[in-house]
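In this supplementary section we document a worked example of the pipeline. Step one takes a protein sequence of length 66 as its only input; no multiple sequence alignment statistics are reported here. Step two produces a three-dimensional model, which step three serialises into structure tokens for compact storage. The input and output of this example are shown verbatim.
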Amino acid sequence: MAGGKENRVRVILKCTSCVRTSVNKKSTGISRYITKKNRHNTPSQLELRKFCPYCYKHTIHGEIKK
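The serialised model returned by step three reads:
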């Protein structure tokens, strides 16, 4: 039936304020979420406010490249 590229693609969102490169931090993780977006309606990179369990607050999570 319909061939070609799919409209909805899977994207990974990563916390932009988490910097976990330091050894002194207790938790050594980076908050990531997986979601889907419509490629035609949102051609730019996606940014959402999500809860980061490592920062203990709502922060901006931006789309990363695969």
